[in-house]
Write a structure and sequence with these properties.
This protein has nine helices and 14 strands. By secondary structure, the chain is an alpha/beta fold. The protein binds nicotinamide-adenine-dinucleotide (NAD).
Length: about 325
């Protein structure tokens, strides 16, 4: 059994506890500054140990650390893992600013430990299949991509105005948070992000947050062009990704939260061939990611986002924010 320490047990930390326990291969300990949260977790899950101060935990006793605190705390926690030679999986985004990012990458290379950033979709079968089909050449060379994504974030996180999402300094807002998931997918499928522009606005959330709730981003990825339309207020929960290739288009649709389809068309008949569909993946997102990370710990090559890729993603977003100022 692998011993995993999960740091930050809020909305996502809890899902990681569940995911690692469900692998059947891990014993889980937790760390959160909120003692009340820890007590609730102890009543719900079979946990090994509970801690309140990450920096005083002897993490060398663990096989890996999962960091799920707000993004402004990621770098210092990840650096401690490097110093103590403990593998880690870091929640996205890598950070909020570039401070300490290059140093962390240097430290991770020198310590040579297993580490990755948890852009969840890279571990999910339907997205892996989509990437595999894009790479297969069936659509020719992919030249353009369109990412359309919206959901009512307030429904899924009723506490949205009190958590990291509500503040820029903790990595909140649609541009700094949601959009980075799709930048990661574009980077995975198309290549390295080069430059971009954005329009962002707080269209609906008002004073409940100091961040934006909507963003439109255009970007260049390894010479290909991509567009990202993303908001956190719309009622239907939708994701559609269109890849335009020289021989046809591949389309990923999340028709409901419980059904994903991959479609293909290579003519103008209006007919799309359904290549494959996936049901109910939503319930296992964090199980899949935990399994992928465990494979990495066992020495297998995985496609989880590297620190370098997550740094490119962050640099792209910071650059987009700078370029897009009035
Ligand atoms: N992969 C995804 O799809 C996904 C979705 C949502 C959030 N996230 C990311 O996960 C991270 C956390 O998001 P969340 O929604 O769980 O936020 P949250 O506010 O619900 O939880 C954060 C938790 O961290 C704890 N914490 C804060 N500082 C701490 C410290 N120094 N030591 C220990 N615990 C500390 C808080 O008490 C809280 O319980 C963010 O980086 C966010 O971007 C990822």
């Amino acid at each position: 059994m692998k011993k995993i320490l999960i740091v930050g047990c809020g909305g996502i930390g809890k899902r990681h506890i569940d995911g690692f326990l469900r692998t059947g291969k891990c014993r889980v300990s937790v760390c959160d500054i909120d003692n009340e949260k820890l007590q609730q977790l102890e009543n719900k899950y079979p946990l090994d140990s509970l801690f309140t101060d990450f920096f005083s935990v002897d993490i060398s006793k663990f096989d890996a650390v999962l960091i799920a605190t707000p993004a402004n705390q990621h770098i210092k926690m990840a650096k401690r893992c490097c110093q103590m030679q403990v593998p880690f999986l870091l929640e996205k985004p890598l950070a909020v600013t570039l401070e300490g990012v290059d140093e962390l990458i240097d430290m991770s290379k020198k310590s040579n430990i297993v580490c990755a950033v948890g852009y969840t979709r890279r571990s999910i079968p339907s997205f892996k299949k989509f990437k595999q089909l894009a790479d297969s050449g069936m659509a020719g060379e992919i030249k353009m991509a369109n990412f359309y994504c919206g959901q009512d974030y307030r429904k899924y996180r009723p506490d949205y105005s009190n958590i990291y999402f509500s503040r820029r300094s903790t990595g909140g807002g649609v541009l700094r948070d949601f959009v980075t998931h799709f930048i990661d997918l574009a980077q995975w499928i198309l290549g390295k992000p080069k430059r971009g522009f954005a329009l962002t606005a707080n269209l609906v959330f008002g004073n409940a947050v100091e961040t934006d709730d909507s963003a439109i981003v255009i970007g260049e990825f390894a010479g290909k062009l991509a567009n990202f339309y993303c908001n956190g207020f719309q009622k239907p929960n939708e994701l559609v990704i269109d890849l335009a290739g020289t021989k046809g288009n591949l389309k990923y649709t999340l028709a409901t939260r419980f059904l994903s389809k991959i479609l293909f068309s290579n003519d103008d008949s209006g007919n799309w061939q359904e290549i494959v569909c996936f049901h109910d993946e939503i319930f296992d997102y964090y199980l899949y990611q935990a399994q992928e990370f465990l494979k990495m710990l066992d020495g297998e090559i995985c496609e989880l986002t590297t620190l370098e890729e997550a740094a490119e993603n962050l640099k792209f977003i910071i650059d987009v924010i700078e370029r897009s100022k009035d």
